[in-house]
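Chain A, query sequence.
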Amino acid sequence: MKSNHTISEDKFNNKWGFVISCIGSSVGMANIWMFPYRAGEFGGAAFLIPYIIFIILIGFTGVIGEMAFGRAMQSGPLGAFKKAFEIRHSRIGTFIGLIPVIGSLGIAIGYSVIIGWILKFLADSITGSIISTEDPAAVFTDLSGNFGSIPWHLLGLLLVLICMSFGISSGIEKVNKVMMPAFFILFLVLAVRVFFLDGSAPGYSYLFKPDWPAMANPQTWVYAMGQAFFSLSLAGSGTVVYGSYLKSDVDIVSSAKYVAFFDTLAALLAGLVIIPAVFAYGMKPNSGPGLLFITIPAVIRSIPLGRVFAVIFFLAVLFAGVTSLMNLLESPVEALQKRLGWSRISAIALVGIVTAAVGVFVEGGLLNPWMDSISIYVIPLGALLAGITMFWVCGKNFARNAVQLGRIRTLGKWFEPMTKYVFCGVAVLVYILGIFFGGIG
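Chain A, predicted structure.
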């Protein structure tokens, strides 16, 4: 499969193409089904305050670090870690770089199953069966069983691989430029519709009424930190590889600011749609897939013009899922292209085959343990290794110079202590506490 042709430079066309693609990678299931539940569980606004603090902290340290790491090394994680450790005359960089690539592929395998679920419910919304003949709980039980969603699973994965096959500027960037604005517009329309539902008011209280004593609970801060960390897609993989496709004249600090803002906006919009709707019909919000695939369809069946509501909702969720999955799959694809010299189509084909082959057997009872294992043990480790490598291993002034590239204003003296000590310290905490609590994001 090795190509005889030199891999052509394919980068994002401009800053906004890069920013929108990074927003697409970060806006996903964590925003839609986890954030609303966590916010209510840990005191509404009392959770939002530490969440926003951690979003700002992590956005201006870890996110800019991973973006700059990829751009400085002109490579995704496999090549970036290799080059970084060569600065220290060490050969372990390739091995370390495999960890975030494996983590990215591992999450992608499980994520592709969920994309299949979303496609099935979108199809049921279009045909009307979601509100007429089928029981959503029964549909989801069958769909989430062993080998229960193979056709939809493979169809969703194929859709994502086709989008990726067009490259970075003509594929990933263009898809995100369509799907991300559409996601925000659709969810805004839904939020307005939900506002006028009778009985929705308790949902807003659930989200935004502060339970101030909850801020004294250490778990509120722990889960806010985990939510922020995972929501911004820190893993030492996807943001690094997107950074490698970034031109040198782009201000990374400014880009990270927009990514953090719109990722938070997406979470808030999801909360404004899901939680008030659930409360309006006397149901309880719950964590996990059941909120999207059982509770929300049950609500939709009772809403006037519920079929239209359902189509808009699952189309918007599909857009969020597709843009996130493209980012997850890009890390192993880029590794095959850059490290082994494969053509993009060959790399996508192999990654797609592996994702599908493993994913089929992950369907059902193995999905939750699979996703938990990767998200607890591998993903935060990749982010921690990226932070240590960028801010410590690469040497004095490397990170500052990499982030300063393309920026007019000079970075302040805050940069080194906040990145080397605070961010890396947070990453260590996320890793340790994630293991202790069995997942915090």
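The CA atoms of residues 2 and 340 lie 7 Å apart. The domain at 32-437 is CATH 1.10.4160 (Hydantoin permease).
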